[in-house]
Write a structure and sequence with these properties.
about 10% strand; about 35% helix; 5-stranded parallel β-sheet; FAD/NAD(P)-binding domain; alpha/beta; globular
Length: about 525
C-alpha cells in the first residue's frame, strides 16, 4: 500500500487518504468531524471572537493529524507475542498468513530461518492461547511462512557506514542500512562471516546450509564484506572514523569468564571445544564435567556425547533456572545426559573435581549461596568451562565509554562517541540471536536518523506500521502440534539435524489455533 499517496490525498481531502487505503470508516470519521464542524460553524458564526480562533486551531490540528494518520496506516495494540519478541517480529501476522494460506509474503527478516531453530521463543511463554490449552507453536510455524527474498539494492545515498563484526547483529545492521540505500561495509576478523552461528552452534541444532543461505540472502543486497581484518590490529579505529560517516560495533562477546577457583587453568574452554568440533575434530576426553547452564554448555555436552564421551552437566542453580533454551535442555535429557543442579566446582585437580552444593531460594536472578560442609569429590578426566563470556573491547578504549564488564554503554544504540554505534552482545553481554537481530534492526534505524539529522522522537513518530490484510480466525478446540524429532538412539551417533518437518496441512492446522489478539481484543 502506498501510504505516501494516501497522505497526499488527505492533505487535500480530509479522510480521503484513509478511504483510499481501505480504512473507509476511519476516513468517514475524519471527514465528519472536520467538515461537519465547519458546516456547523458557518451556521452559528456571528463574529471573530477567541472561541472562533480556538476552533480554527483545532481544525488545523485535525487536518495535520489526518495527514499523519494516512501516512502511518492502521495501528493496533501489540499482542504479547510481538511485545516479547527480541527480534522485533510480529508472530501473529505471519501465523495468520499461514493459517489463511495467504498469497502475501512476510517481509524479509535477517536470520528468520535460524530463529525457527534456535530462538528461546519468549513469545510462546506469553501466548494468550495458554488460557485455553497451550501456546501456539510460534517458533516452529516460521517454517511455513512465505518470505520475500531481497535482491541487489542500488546505493542512493552518499554516506558510508562501517560495520565491525559479521555476526548476526552486524549482518542485520548492514542489511537494513543497505536496504535504505547506504553503502555498508563489514569488517570481520575471522575468515568467514556468521559469528557464533557459523563457528560454534552444532549442526544438529543449526545446519550449515541454513546459515550459508541466510548470509547469502543478506549480502546479495549489495553489502561489502572484508574478512580477515581485525580492527585495532590490521586497521585502526582512527582510520575507520576518518573514512566512514558512521561506525557500528557488533563484535559480540568472545572472552570466556572465569570462576577464579584453584586449578581452573587445567579446565578446557567451551568455545574452543565447539569451534574445533565444528571444524571436524573428534575429542576423546573420557569422563567429562561441563560447568554451566547456558546453550553453550548444553551444546558442548550434546556434541561430546555424540563423539563417545561420558558427559554430565553441573549447574549452580536449579534446572528450571537454566538460561539455555528449554527445548535444548529437554533434548539433552532425552539423550541421556544428566544435569546435576545446585552444584558448583570449588577446586579442579588432575583426576577429580571438588564440588560444593549451593542454594538460590530467590531463583535465577537471586544470589547463589554455597552450603557449608557440603563439599564432595567427583572423578572426572576433563572439565569444560562454559560459565559465560564477556566482550573484548580493548580496541575501543579512549573512543567510547565501557562498563566494568567491558560492555559498551549505549543509549538507543548510540555510544558516547558521536559517530560510533553499537549493539548485540558487545552491549548486552551474552544474549540470544533474537536479541542480536532486534538490536541490529533498531540501531540501523538510529544510524539512519543520525545521518539524516532527524531527531530520534520524530523518526519514531513517522515510522510506518507494517500491517498486511489479516483475518480474524475462529476459536477452535485443537491441541498443540507435537513437533517430531529423530529417534534418540539414532541421533546421538551423528550430527544431523534433530528436529523434523511436518506437512503444509499440519502447519496450517496449528496456525489456526492463533487467537489473532489485535483483531479479537481491540483496545
Amino acid at each position: 500500500m502506498n501510504y505516501g499517496r494516501a497522505a497526499l490525498i488527505s492533505t487535500f481531502v480530509v479522510g480521503g487518504g484513509q478511504m483510499y487505503s481501505g480504512r473507509f470508516w476511519t476516513g468517514i470519521c475524519f471527514a465528519v468531524i472536520f467538515y461537519g464542524s465547519i458546516v456547523l460553524m458557518i451556521n452559528i458564526w456571528t463574529e471573530l471572537n477567541p472561541a472562533f480562533w480556538g476552533l480554527v486551531a483545532v481544525w488545523i490540528l485535525v487536518w495535520l493529524f489526518n495527514i499523519y494518520d494516512a501516512y502511518k496506516g492502521m495501528s493496533y495494540e501489540k499482542p504479547q507475542c510481538e511485545k516479547t519478541c527480541p527480534a522485533g517480529i510480529a508472530p501473529w501476522i505471519y501465523i495468520n498468513l499461514v493459517a489463511t494460506e495467504s498469497k502475501q509474503y512476510y517481509p524479509f527478516v535477517p536470520f528468520f530461518d535460524t530463529l525457527e531453530r534456535i530462538c528461546p521463543a519468549p513469545c510462546e511463554e506469553h501466548c494468550t492461547r495458554q488460557g485455553i490449552n497451550s501456546s501456539v507453536a510460534i517458533k516452529y510455524l516460521k517454517s511455513g511462512v512465505k518470505k520475500t527474498i531481497p535482491s541487489f539494492k542500488q546505493k542512493t545515498k552518499k554516506e558510508k557506514i562501517a560495520i565491525v563484526g559479521a555476526g548476526p547483529c552486524g549482518l542485520t545492521t548492514a542489511y537494513y542500512l543497505a536496504y535504505k540505500g547506504y553503502e555498508a561495509v563489514i569488517y570481520e576478523k575471522e575468515k568467514i562471516p556468521g559469528g557464533v552461528l557459523a563457528t560454534l552452534i552444532p549442526e544438529f541444532r543449526l545446519p550449515k546450509s541454513t546459515i550459508d543461505k541466510e548470509i547469502e540472502n543478506i549480502l546479495n543486497i549489495g553489502i561489502g564484506l572484508k574478512c580477515g581484518i581485525e580492527i585495532g590490529k590490521d586497521l585502526s579505529m582512527d582510520e575507520l572514523l576518518k573514512k566512514y560517516d558512521a561506525v557500528f560495533i557488533g563484535t559480540g562477546a568472545w572472552k570466556p569468564e572465569k570462576l577464579g577457583i584453584p586449578g581452573e587453568e587445567n579446565a578446557l574452554i567451551g568455545f574452543n571445544i565447539l569451534e574445533q568440533i565444528k571444524k571436524g575434530k573428534n575429542f576423546n576426553l573420557g569422563r567429562v564435567g561441563v560447568i554451566g547452564g547456558g546453550n553453550t554448555a548444553i551444546d558442548i555436552a550434546r556434541s561430546l556425547t555424540r563423539q563417545g564421551n561420558e558427559v554430565k552437566i553441573y549447574y549452580r542453580r536449579s534446572i528450571e533456572d537454566m538460561p539455555a533454551e528449554q527445548e535444548n535442555r529437554i533434548e539433552t535429557q532425552e539423550e541421556g545426559i544428566e544435569i546435576i543442579p545446585l552444584t558448583l566446582p570449588k577446586e579442579i585437580k588432575k583426576d577429580r573435581v571438588t564440588m560444593v552444593k549451593t542454594e538460590c531460594p530467590e531463583g535465577r536472578n537471586g544470589p547463589v549461596k554455597m552450603i557449608q560442609a557440603s563439599e564432595f569429590n567427583v572423578a572426572l578426566d576433563n572439565v569444560v568451562m562454559a560459565v559465560g563470556q564477556q566482550p573484548e573491547t580493548d580496541f575501543l578504549k579512549g573512543y567510547v565509554k565501557l562498563d566494568k564488564f567491558s560492555r559498551i554503554i549505549t543509549k538507543n544504540g548510540k555510544t558516547s562517541h558521536p559517530k560510533i554505534f553499537a549493539g548485540g552482545d558487545v552491549v548486552l553481554g551474552s544474549a540470544t540471536v533474537a536479541h542480536a537481530v532486534g538490536h541490529g534492526m533498531k540501531t540501523a534505524k538510529r544510524i539512519d536518523f543520525y545521518l539524516k539529522r532527524i531527531p530520534l522522537f520524530l523518526g519514531r513518530l513517522f515510522s510506518k506500521t507494517y500491517q498486511p490484510k489479516v483475518k480474524l480466525l475462529p476459536i477452535n478446540d485443537i491441541n498443540r502440534i507435537t513437533i517430531p524429532h529423530r529417534d534418540i538412539e539414532e541421533r546421538i551417533h551423528d550430527f544431523e539435524e534433530v528436529e523434523l518437518k511436518v506437512s503444509k496441512e499440519e502447519l496450517k492446522r496449528e496456525a489456526t489455533r492463533c487467537l489473532s489478539c489485535p483483531l479479537r481484543y481491540r483496545p
